[in-house]
């Protein structure tokens, strides 16, 4: 049966058509639509009739209630009028009473003030009388030996003095009271010391109550710390057992009866096993932790209100008292390990010292971190400022080393870089230079991932040891180490230049000698002294250095990206914006513990309380601001964590490109070095019977040699086309292969253009060009043009000008230069050719 929902008809946006369509959708598929609509109309009509009937009945009932409601309204209105009249009468009477009673109330107030003053004076007189009586009887109370009664007497005397104020008759009483309190304290402290040593709870509590009664709680704290500090200090001081090691001394817990409870006493056992400081320290921490756990339990019974501050104070005083000795033992341990280690070379010893010192520091720091976490777990319920004091004291021996972290890291990394073996780059005899070049380049390429591992380890050390608070020093150190490393690579390039006989200083001297006739052909190039096989090996070895630049670029880029990501994570962990805000908020407080506590209780959770880097930055707001600025810059995509490294890498790439180019062009330079001085250019035509041409139909040997070399360039550049400079196929698919082919083509064109430029410079140096020389030069250029065409290169404009002008007879050359159709040629080169051929163009 269909149910009609009446709520939809009450909607202001009711749409009859939409309602009817929706009702039709709910019909059974087998029911006819007309029957469904008829039933729906019937139901709506019945519902409408029911509503009308109900409305009529309710209207009739409402009409019957209207007269009764009217009568009730009239009655309520009469009552309200009567009540208003009564309230008005009462208010009039109150006003009259207020005027007549004001004077009486004021008089009563004055009487009450006088009464209060009289009572205060009476109390003061009683206190003065009591103070006089207490002062007279105090010696008798002391003589009784009841220290609790003495404390109550002195407390009452102080209360009376505070009430009396500055009364002349009692002016010296305050000083006497101080003397009496000191006297009582002197009687209590020895007993308290004995009670603490013997761990007598009831005696300790009674003596504690006495000191608190006279306001000397600080004396209790000092005495407790002094007594409990001695066993811990004894363990630390008795650990020295001789020249090279430390003796492990265990703290044994002996149970002794105290009233109805069992208490622990501390004693030092003898165990002279020689162990190193780094092995001994965890045992010391374990013993201290065990002792503090016992103290925590005992103090919670003896001092239930103060144990949460007494035991942390004991630990703070203990760590503060051994901080200087702790630091000295770290340095001594570094020296002892070095003196017992093997290498005798000074450089290796320096590296060993730095590595041991920084490694030892991190190992000890990690042990201290474990101890700090255990302490935080033990002291989990203490106040935040007390926890800050405890953590600061625990880590205080390392503060000086953290300040010098940058220097320590720089020394370690510098020695690691210096230890890299580049000894492949030493001069060898002719015939082995190709092997020497290949070995040197291999060592250079292998050094790059090694240095990357050095740098990554340095980042881990910085985060592990300083928590990232010394990131500024780390970045400066990494930048400096990269400068040293790239400088060492550049030195290797200089060595390779000498091995490959492309040292520019030597080359420039020899070129000048050729021009002035002081150097012979035999001295033109060292490459003339080596075989083709060695020359090929040298070229292949030098091409491998391109892999060095590729590896250096990629490794540097990846490392810097990783470093920036590390800096961003560090910024999130340290929460520096809130840290700086809390530092500013705490500017009015004194002491690092108070300001740091504000941060630790700021809703960051307990995990950050372990981060000693945050505690350090609270104490160093300037460093915190610089670090915040640095980490903010790390979010910029254009930020360089290593400020100078990218420029150094680019400079190294340029030097590598210069070396590769000079090696690839060296053979061409050697063949063309004296081309301008060849006698063929000024040779006259020889007379012969058959009137045959006196020039060679073939290109000159130097041009043929240069052309053959250029045609073999694709084969020599094959390692580059295979991917990288090492001859190994690069991973990454066709994109890398295409890049390698483009790189090889770029080098081929660069060398070919350089060869043509050298050849053109030699041609410009020809002083006189005879007809025979012009014909030979034309044949040379024609051959060279075909070589360039085979390499898919265009003939340069200057060389094309030479070729065009040499094909014209001497008599027509001047007119040829002036023709408008030849304006595409190089006019300066054309005039130079005319000068060579002794043709006037004016």
From TrEMBL:
GO terms for biological process: Golgi organization; intracellular protein transport; retrograde vesicle-mediated transport, Golgi to endoplasmic reticulum. It is found in: Golgi apparatus membrane. It is a peripheral membrane protein. InterPro entries: COG7 (IPR019335). GO terms for cellular component: Golgi membrane; Golgi transport complex. The keyword Transport applies. Keywords: Golgi apparatus, Membrane, Protein transport, Transport. It comes from the Eukaryota. Belongs to the COG7 family. PANTHER family: CONSERVED OLIGOMERIC GOLGI COMPLEX COMPONENT 7, CONSERVED OLIGOMERIC GOLGI COMPLEX SUBUNIT 7. This is Conserved oligomeric Golgi complex subunit 7. It comes from Ceratopteris richardii (Triangle waterfern).
